[in-house]
Amino acid sequence: MMTSMSSINSELVRFAKSVCKNAYAPYSKFAVGCAILSENGHYYSGANVENLSFGLTICAERAAVFNGVSKEGPSFRIKELVVYTNSEMPITPCGACLQVLREFGSNFKVISISESGGQFDHALGELLPFPPDIQL
Q: DSSP per residue over 104-130, as a string?
């Protein structure tokens, strides 16, 4: 589903685009930035950080969530989320990120924007339709 840029939180887009520049992606050259607005009204961001041992790489979405939890504690909940990448096409978060995102919210859109201007949005439930039964 496409969303007009006017309906997307411009602060989130600005934060995601800005933090994307801080990504550490020497191997893939695939930089990703993520910005989250929490239900408490605070902004958090994260960039992907690669490692030569690829299993130790952390995605931007999880970095942003962990930043939010570090500041707000276990009550942290996601209200809005934007993912920005230096790629031609927008991306969806990986399965691990979707599961972490679901732990901290269920009723929000995942908005993805690429450097070339491509964008989409999906409800988290569309991207992770059958999550484990957890209580939020």
A: T-SS-EEEEEETTS-EEEEEHHHHSSS
Q: Which residues contact 70 (CB under 8 A, 6 or more apart)?
A: none
* pLDDT given at position 132: 72
Assess if residue 121 is contained within a domain.
yes
List, for the chain, all residue ranges whose pLDDT scores fall below the cut of 70: 1-7, 133-136
Q: Is the dihedral of CA 13, 88, 94, 134 positive or negative?
A: positive
Any domain includes 123 = yes
Task: Please give the pLDDT value at position 131.
Answer: 75
Catalytic residue among 39, 61, 88, 115: 61
| 50 catalytically annotated | no
- Asked, for residue 44, whether it belongs to a domain, the answer is yes
Overall number of domains in the chain: 1
Q: Does residue 10 belong to any structural domain of this protein?
A: yes
Give the pLDDT of residue 130: 83
